[in-house]
Write a structure and sequence with these properties.
The chain is α+β, with helices and mostly antiparallel strands. The chain is built from two helices and eight strands, in the order βββββββαβα. Strands 1, 2, 3, 4, 5, 6, 7 and 8 form an eight-stranded mixed beta sheet that branches. Pfam families: PRC.
Length: 140
Amino acid sequence: MTEEVPIGLIRLDDTDLMLAKPEDDVRGSTVVGSDGEDIGKVSTLFIDADERRVRLLDVASGGLLGIGAEHRLIPVDAVVEVTEEKVTIGKTRSEIASAPGYDPELEEFKPPDDLNTLYGYYGMTPYWAPGYRYPGYPFR
């Protein structure tokens, strides 16, 4: 990718900001894969502070009371459906389990390298690319 990755993604939990669309706040929702298998729960959201739009879901799975949980960042573009009960991702559980991991306790999120790798893995057009359109999937 030749486009420069924008800096400025922040954890929604670390701010007092609200999303442009409050219904986009899916923290705590169960996440399932396209195969119907449970993946985990949305731990937090990474947002673009300027546009106040969700860019990434931090999905935690396993562990006990959040301790030892594995985290995966999933581009919001991979979401195919959101209901009151769940968020469905357009990849299977095993595909998501093979995605690049993320440890919020041991490292800081480094947008340029991490985002290029992440969007490449999911085969998604990154939100900073020319012509990108925010996904128009059905929300609650």
